[in-house]
Design a protein that fits this description.
The protein has about 300 residues and is mainly beta. It has no helices and 11 strands. The chain has one domain. Helix content is about 0%, strand content about 25%. Strand 10 and strand 11 form a beta hairpin. The protein starts with about 70 loop residues before the first strand and ends with a strand.
Length: about 300
């Protein structure tokens, strides 16, 4: 008796990373899943609505070196609390970057497709995700809660990917890093190796109570630096934190907590997140800062 066999060879594809903020969104035209990895509407900010998933959920085996600083143009935000309906300029900064530095030259590009004719130059891609939630859990959302540019009469200007440092989620409930592309050559990435980003946040109406800020960031290593493996989730450094903002004039907010994990009773946090006592001077403005540092031990 003769037998016929079918030999099936399965080749594992490289794991892809989310280098573009639109890959986190659910939907869009075209849908992010049509051209790469897609988070299908999970934002990985560390918020409870996403079961506390954050950047370290996918990006693994980083050295735990980077630190994260969130600054605001009104120093009293972190000490006295937010003023209802007031707009704040936020600055997010990464410190102690160690990954992908060999790819930090100007003029990097997206990986070209078969219809592109430019030369490929690997990028050093860093990124962040941030959201602000009400005490009950749901996020602050709406068309003008977060703005990539200074709002005019309370309204965000139209997005402009050639100049905006950040991109707001479709429902206005979170904000991410923007890669910036010129209209005449969308394959080029204008802002390579970013370590700081700016955005505008408008506080909720009076009576909203304490808020929780969730923020997570990635120091990407650029994968293998090839078109086929432009980004991957391996050996990227990550940091994530959360802290509470009280409403000005109300009782003190709960103590600040943060880290890549919350340990069991008697253990110390993997990371500390604290409001800095010192004020920073940036662009001739007073900035209060909240800093997160993830410890090197596990």
């Amino acid at each position: 008796m003769r037998y016929s066999f079918l030999l099936l060879i399965v080749v594992a594809a490289p794991a892809a990373a989310f280098e573009d903020a639109t890959q986190f969104f659910n939907g869009g035209e075209p849908h992010a899943a049509t051209y790469g990895a897609s988070a299908e509407g999970v934002y990985f900010t560390g918020a409870p609505r996403y079961t506390s998933l954050n950047c370290s959920t996918c990006h693994t085996d980083g050295p735990g070196l980077i630190r994260l600083k969130l600054g605001a143009d009104h120093p009293e935000l972190f000490t006295d609390g937010y003023v209802p309906n007031q707009t704040y300029l936020f600055e997010i900064e990464l410190f102690a970057e160690s990954k992908g530095l060999m790819y930090d030259s100007a003029g990097c590009t997206e990986p070209p497709t078969k219809n592109d004719h430019y030369s490929y130059v690997q990028c050093n891609s860093n990124s962040f995700a941030l959201e602000v939630d009400l005490a009950g859990g749901p996020p602050l959302a709406g068309p003008n809660v977060f703005c990539a540019q200074a709002p005019v009469n309370g309204v965000c200007p139209q997005p402009d990917s050639s100049v905006d440092e950040t991109i707001v989620a479709p429902d206005g409930d979170a904000v991410f890093a923007e890669r910036q592309h010129p209209a005449v050559n969308p394959g080029q990435v204008l802002r390579n190796d970013p370590t700081d980003w700016h955005l505008w946040w408008t506080a909720p109406p009076a009576g909203s109570g304490a808020l929780t800020v969730y923020v997570a960031a990635v120091d990407g290593n650029g994968g293998s630096g090839t078109v086929d493996n432009d980004q991957d989730p391996y050996n990227d450094d990550t940091v994530q934190a959360s802290f509470t903002l009280k409403e000005q004039g109300t009782a003190s907010a709960p103590a600040t907590t943060a880290g890549c994990a919350v340990p069991g009773p008697g253990a110390s946090l993997d990371a500390l997140f604290a409001v800095a006592a010192a004020l920073l001077l940036s662009r001739r403005r007073a900035w209060a800062s909240a800093s997160a540092r993830r410890s090197s031990h596990r």
